[in-house]
Amino acid sequence: MAVLMSSATDLFKPLYGHFILADQDGLTDDSEQPWELGGDWFETTPNVMVIRTAASEDPLGLHTAGFAFETWNGSPPPSSAEAWDTYVSDQVLLTSGRINLTDIEGGTSPVTIDLGASGQVWYVRAHVRVRRLTDDEIAEYELDAEDYEAESFLLRFWPATGQ
């Protein structure tokens, strides 16, 4: 049975509809540029994970997202299906094993997620939940977009070896 090794939380704002989780070592020779990744709402390339905002009902395109990060020593138990709209699983090489939320212009969160191992391929399962706005909330939100947490993410990491 897998054991939760560490957890952390963070708040971050998207820029141009994206959040980026970047390894502190930066891009590798094999990494694609984050803005060149296209397709699903969550994608990986060595040292980088790109999350496209899921808050399509956000009237201004500006909001705060809540992030929870978990590191497990093996495949974690399933999350409650009722708690999340959807999830996707992938693998990512992280050369330092220390990641930060960043934006596409280089703004970086002061919260560092240390997965505890460098040069490791990790499984990652990304969950998202979008908060739907009522008409009254939209009117209130337009006055104070900075404080509205329109979406939440849970990212669970575990080593790709010895699962």
Extract low-pLDDT stretches: none
Order of helices and strands: EEEEEEEEEHE
How many distinct helices?
Answer: 1
Structural class determined from secondary elements: mainly beta
As a percent range, the share of helical residues equals under 10%
Radius of gyration: 16 Å
How many strand units? 10
CA-based shape: globular
Query: What's the rounded overall pLDDT mean?
Result: 83
Distance between the termini: 10 Å
Strand ordering within the main sheet = 1-5-10-9-6
Quote the beta fraction: 35-45%
Report on the structure:
With 163 residues, the chain is mainly beta. Helix content is 6%, strand content 44%. The chain is built from one helix and ten strands, in the order βββββββββαβ. It has one helix at 135-143; strands spanning 4-12, 18-23, 42-45, 48-52, 64-72, 86-94, 98-102, 113-114, 120-130, 149-159. Strands 1-5-10-9-6 form a five-stranded mixed sheet, with no helix packed on it. A hairpin with a 2-residue loop joins strand 3 and strand 4. The radius of gyration is 16 Å and the shape is globular. It starts with a strand and ends with a strand. The model has no long low-confidence stretch (mean pLDDT 83).
Brief summary of the model shown:
The protein has 1 helix and 10 strands, in the order βββββββββαβ.
Write the layout of secondary structure elements.
Elements: E1 4-12, E2 18-23, E3 42-45, E4 48-52, E5 64-72, E6 86-94, E7 98-102, E8 113-114, E9 120-130, H1 135-143, E10 149-159
Parallel strand pairs: 5-10
Antiparallel strand pairs: 1-5, 2-4, 2-7, 3-4, 6-9, 7-8, 9-10
